[in-house]
Amino acid sequence: MITKFNHVAIVVPDLNDAKKKYKEVLGAKVSEICDYIQHGVSVVFIELENTKIELMHPYGENSPISKFLENNKNGSIHHICIEVKDIKKSIDKLKKNGVRILGDETPKIGAHNKPVIFLHPKDFYGTLIELEQE
Fold first, then answer.
1. Is 130 a catalytic residue?
2. Catalytic residue (choose from 54, 83, 130, 132)
């Protein structure tokens, strides 16, 4: 079902500062900041040869990651993203195996303009997993 690792997402307290640090200190290829109003986040992607790092910051008053940042004031890893070939088939298999899908179980369009879902972290040893269709 899963095919490859896509990215790790880190919530940061200051997106501009984090962007600058990854670019200037680590010499990384860093995207511009993108605001995703529908998801309540602002993000920057760090492009690596074999994967990406997503730096996230709350956007708007109802951001789903505001509480996370409040509890992790210096920032922290938020989730990992793994690709799947067919997200709808993946949902069916997950549900048959008792895995909880966050939200209404309907894929949403993620930051890469591809369908995504999130799996309940209690079903995967405390790790929030985002599945993204290839």
1. yes
2. 130
